[in-house]
Amino acid sequence: MELDRSATHGQFTPFANARSFAPPGDSFLLSAESSEIRALADRLWPPGPGSEVREPRARFRVSVAKAASECSTVGESWRVDPPHYLVSYGDRLETRIDTDAATVDAWVGPGLLRTDPYTASRLLLEAPAAILLATRAWQPLHAAAIVGTTGAVVVRGGNGAGKSTLAARAFRDGLQVFGDESILVHREAPHRIAVAVRELLIRPDAAQLVRPIGPIREVLSGDERKLRLAMDRSPTPVARETPHKATLLLGDRDRSGGALLTPIGAEEFVLEFAKGEIPQERLAGCDPDRVARAWAAGPTFRLDGHRDLSGAIGALRGLLENAI
Which is nearest to 294 in space by CA: 158, 187, 194? Predict the structure, then answer.
């Protein structure tokens, strides 16, 4: 969709109180008028610049402005015309991303910042950072990641294969989850994976299977209504990067006899891995085939019968707890 660039903010001029943060494999500067916004960033990333600084240095500018309607109930809306991205949340927030210039220019109403800091953080900081990272040192992958003490098992499958339900149940049962639909893989070192946006979205009919704990919010994802599950928001940054340890491809969810984990060979793995591909994996020079070939040399499995969520979580725990 073509963006109307007549409303862009013009030359990017940061505020005076810029701070440096270090997301995985990168570094950026945040200029924010509000201490509340800086506090949200403190929960996402450690202070920078860190050991990896890429040029051009990514820059965020976030201001607080009186919203046209702080009572707006309209959900988030995305308009994409690379290298330009625009996200709005009714009349309460707007974020403009330019991946060529490596800039994010955003404003938020004080009401949203006060009443829903999770949404503000996701749309002002976390999602824009993921978009920038995915055009720099990282590339996006359509997958979930379940994390243990020595690394992550990446769960790959096409739309509707059950990634989100499995990831949500894993989180519900006490496992660490990087994401349910999208993660980041390092372009030069595919054994490095990172959080894109740390969130869990499930279909309403999966809620009974997952039995989530904590607040649940109904949202519109594309044209589909889903439930966004609450994930812990630590006051300090949680780990956002980990080594890749194994890959699990989702097979026949309705196989009788319960969950079954089966090792698969490299050739079959590469073919099945491609079935989970989405168009975003080919943007900005990304190459999911390279990821598949690199991961085919490591532990690879297929999981069938994962409608048996208890059995599937048991299989995941086995992979995470053993030295793969």
Answer: 187
